[in-house]
Amino acid sequence: MARETSLATVWLMMLRMMEAQGVDVTRVLREVGVSEGVLRQPNARLPSRLTDVVFAKAMEVIPDPAFGLRSAEYWHPSNLGTLGFAWLSCATLRRGLLRMERYARILGNRFTYTCVSQPNGLRFIYDHGRGKDPVGWPIADFALSILVDMCRTNFGARLAPLRVSLRRPEPADTGPYTAFFGGEVCFGQAEDSFLIDMATVDTPLPTANTALAATFDGILAGQLNELVADDLVTRCRAWLLHHLTSGEPSEAEMADAMGLSRRSMQRRLNEQGWSYKRVVDDTRAELARRYMGDRSKSLTEIAFLLGFSEQSAFSRAFRRWTGLAPRAFRLLQA
């Protein structure tokens, strides 16, 4: 099993929140053997088990069980590294949340983000990876409060999820949760998640910057590739991002780039539930949605950037991905 770590700068949000609650964070850092200087190093990583130790200490000394919600007051894009600044440039909340899902391992490899589209909106699920351990309760509060506040930063302070589901048991005072999230909050659920309505999650954002988003994605793909060098799917996708404009690469070319024989690559992808065709198709679908948000790019140009030799082939693929023709999709975004 890979060593479970998290980005050290994420700790800055956690510690600011705890300090505001009266916790002696200098003492806490000394007890867990972490120097404050490490927390300010952009790419430094810390063992995830230490996060559990720190939250457990906070649970002992902070009387408010909802203390994790206060973390939303202390987040800054720099705490999330490149991913934080990429968030500010996203075209819609859907694209931003999908980016968070894809690059979550840069922040930490113990937890997962999962986006689920449903008829009434997008459900964003956070799995802290602690199972039924109560330390997961404030960790979920910490993560979800920051993510919802990130959405409000881009969309507007009035944003309220349709529903928030929390695994923690219902506390004696639910007021802090309803006051923060603003919508329906349900406790004792099977997952920690929030649901944002379809109109909100797909509304074009005034903070969008497609060119910057594309630049950040290139950086993030490189960071993720280095971080999970043993993840073949991630490596294949990162390589495709730089080679699709030359046309769809062959399976043999991709295998060669991965340093594998074609048969070995097929076997390893299959073990992860993937195939060459699925990796190419999934990467194209993600890029297509990103490019469609850039009104300066024509449909012909987008087809070329995705490696299609004909626009008709791109149109068929796009309809398969979204259920809409490219022009109809753009009209809905207008």
At CATH level 2, the architecture of the largest domain is Alpha-Beta Complex
CATH class of the largest domain: Alpha Beta
Computed over alpha carbons, the radius of gyration is 21 Å
Mean pLDDT rating: 90
* N-to-C order of helices and strands: EHHEHHHHEEHEHEEHHHHHHHHH
- Unreliable stretches (pLDDT < 50, length at least 5) are none
Protein model, in words:
- With 334 residues, the protein is α+β, with helices and mostly antiparallel strands.
- It has 17 helices and 7 strands.
- The chain folds into 2 domains: 197 residues, H-NOX domain (Alpha-Beta Complex); 104 residues, Homeodomain-like (Arc Repressor Mutant, subunit A).
- α8 links the parallel β5 and β6.
- The mean pLDDT is 90.
Quick gist of this model?
This protein is α+β, with helices and mostly antiparallel strands and 334 residues long.
List the SSEs and their pairings.
Elements: E1 5-7, H1 10-20, H2 25-32, E2 45-47, H3 48-61, H4 82-88, H5 93-102, H6 104-107, E3 112-118, E4 121-127, H7 136-155, E5 163-165, H8 175-181, E6 184-186, E7 192-197, H9 198-201, H10 210-227, H11 232-243, H12 251-257, H13 262-271, H14 276-292, H15 299-305, H16 311-322, H17 326-333
Key structural traits:
7 strands, 334 residues, 2 domains, globular, single chain, 10% strand, H-NOX domain, alpha+beta, Arc Repressor Mutant, subunit A
